């Protein structure tokens, strides 16, 4: 069995007492096959060369690198969060197309490739995660890597016209074609990918799910990510979750809870949600005093102006609706700007009559699936879900809404609050069966099976190198990028084990068959 190598911007913490479903699924696959998890460890460095730290986590090798602050600022805060995130979520108005950002993005992807390459084995299967690492396969191919490399995009793939606004869109898509397999969340994402390849990249469909651009063939399919539904349901029985349920029952004995759980991100449609709830109270006064929206808006990326702006707007709207409709013993909205544990979230979902998941655009949105998993099957709550979340393709029994339409969203909340028990149970049974079958383990197995079916690069023509790579200076006074010498070693690569740094030459030429 081939070893699995997972690459992500950040590496899961082995000491995390309550890891998310993705971390659990990847850990299981890594432990089963033996593997390596590579990514940034969260540390910034001032040295000329970022150091690599290697540790062992049972059968998994964990390798984390450092980043220079300048590179972190331009790569993560810059290109990832100020270009790719807003563009891929259809918010061109929030994008900042600074060329410095893209240069930093390329430098970090190159750094990852150069530090990962010496750690690879001949038959490794490499699985790269998310928009931070779109250029990684191209960088690895340029260094001679011939292993199978797959990529999964957790966020939406944007429409052709939106993606084309990015000045480097052609280089990004050419880099994406260096992967053997590209996984997307939804059929709509695949349609957007296909439209770009055919209309903008002058590509063609060679056969089902295979796309050819300038002689390079890449397989692209839909792999909707799931959750561990049984594990999340089990959280509702933990003391922490039951304490939340008890608190909610006592505080809202005569009222029904409408729950929203989101990061405070502009893609989540939080202002639009408050507008819809206001419309509900205005046109359906019977829900005044009887329905309360408990909205979790956890902090995220607070150093970015767009996130400060959305927080200010949202908190102003919460204050306004409470001021207009609140009474001495009831407020329509309870807003909590904190991070809750997964057990607390499970308890909150279990207590809710309605789950309000209304992003303006989302790759999947696992909160929708967690809400379903946490319900009492004998008296389940109702999910109100945005049509623009990837999850809507799987969760058709939810009440699907257009979050931009406050009037119709309010009507759907009203429908959910008044839905008969028999209908609630019928809808929930179908939704629960789907998330239990199409769970995170199913997702992981499907992707790895598809990647394993891809033809190894060594059996194909040599992979291209992306033209954009040559735009990055070969040397930089602050960050002398590591390049292999003629014997295949990487003279600047240092590995830290046990707190000591030591040079680690890598026979990359031998491994790559040079």
Blueprint of the fold:
Elements: E1 4-10, H1 21-33, E2 35-45, E3 52-57, E4 60-68, H2 69-88, H3 99-116, E5 125-129, H4 136-142, E6 148-152, H5 160-163, H6 169-176, E7 181-184, H7 187-199, E8 204-207, E9 210-213, E10 216-222, H8 229-235, H9 239-251, E11 256-263, H10 270-283, E12 291-298, H11 305-325, E13 333-336, H12 342-351, E14 354-357, H13 366-373, E15 382-386, E16 399-401, H14 406-418, H15 421-437, H16 440-453, E17 494-497, E18 500-503, H17 508-511
Parallel strand pairs: 1-2, 1-5, 2-4, 3-17, 5-6, 6-7, 7-10, 11-12, 11-14, 12-13, 14-15, 15-16
Antiparallel strand pairs: 3-4, 8-9, 9-10, 17-18
Keywords:
Rossmann fold; globular
Explain how this protein is built.
This protein is of the alpha/beta class and 514 residues long. It has 2 domains: 4-225 and 442-482, Glycogen Phosphorylase B (Rossmann fold, 3-Layer(aba) Sandwich), CATH 3.40.50; 229-437, Rossmann fold (3-Layer(aba) Sandwich). Helix content is 40%, strand content 20%. The protein has helices at residues 21-33, 69-88, 99-116, 136-142, 160-163, 169-176, 187-199, 229-235, 239-251, 270-283, 305-325, 342-351, 366-373, 406-418, 421-437, 440-453, 508-511, and strands at 4-10, 35-45, 52-57, 60-68, 125-129, 148-152, 181-184, 204-207, 210-213, 216-222, 256-263, 291-298, 333-336, 354-357, 382-386, 399-401, 494-497, 500-503. The protein has a 12-stranded mixed sheet, with helices on both faces. It has a 6-stranded parallel sheet with strand order 13-12-11-14-15-16, with helices on both faces. It is globular, with a radius of gyration of 24 Å. Residues 461-514 have low confidence and may be disordered. One of its GO terms (biological process) is trehalose biosynthetic process. InterPro entries: Glyco_trans_20. It comes from Comamonas koreensis.
